[in-house]
Amino acid sequence: MTIETVSFVQIITAVTAKGAVLYGLTANGAVYEYNFSREVWIPIPMRALPENEVQQSVIGLRGPSRTTEEG
């Protein structure tokens, strides 16, 4: 098993109903979430939403959210 080294330019702490969450941001824009039980950083796929869409269904880190509309 190969262990990859990841360096972060910023680490963010968030508080949720289930406890604290750590997110890391790399210099190239990759986002990772720390898994406390496995003691590893897990990459989170991220993408930008299209700017020209009026209505967009957004999938967040924890699942689907409501559809948003710009008005």
Walkthrough of the structure:
The protein has 71 residues and is mainly β. The protein has one domain (10-69). The protein contains no helices and eight strands. The strands form three sheets. A four-stranded antiparallel beta sheet has the order 1-2-3-4, with no helix packed on it. A two-stranded antiparallel sheet has the order 5-8. β3 and β4 (40-44) form a beta hairpin. It is globular.
What is the secondary structure topology, with strand pairs?
Layout lengths: L9 E7 L2 E7 L5 E5 L4 E5 L10 E2 L2 E2 L2 E2 L3 E2 L2
Antiparallel strand pairs: 1-2, 2-3, 3-4, 5-8, 6-7
Task: Looking at this protein, list some descriptive labels.
disordered C terminus, two-stranded antiparallel sheet, mainly beta, 71 residues, 8 strands, 4-stranded antiparallel β-sheet
Summary, kept brief:
This protein has 71 residues and is mainly beta. The chain has strands spanning 10-16, 19-25, 31-35, 40-44, 55-56, 59-60, 63-64, 68-69.
Continuous helix count: 0
Helix content: under 10%
Number of domains: 1
How many strands, which pairing sense, and closed or not: the largest β-sheet?
Answer: 4 strands, antiparallel
From the N-terminal CA to the C-terminal CA, the straight-line distance is: 51 Å
Query: Which class do the helix and strand fractions yield?
Result: mainly beta
The rough form would be described as globular
Low-pLDDT runs:
63-71
Strand order of the largest sheet: 1-2-3-4
Q: Please give the radius of gyration in angstroms.
A: 15 Å
- Mean pLDDT reading: 78
Order of helices and strands: EEEEEEEE
Query: Could you tell me the strand content as a percent range?
Result: over 45%
Number of strands: 8
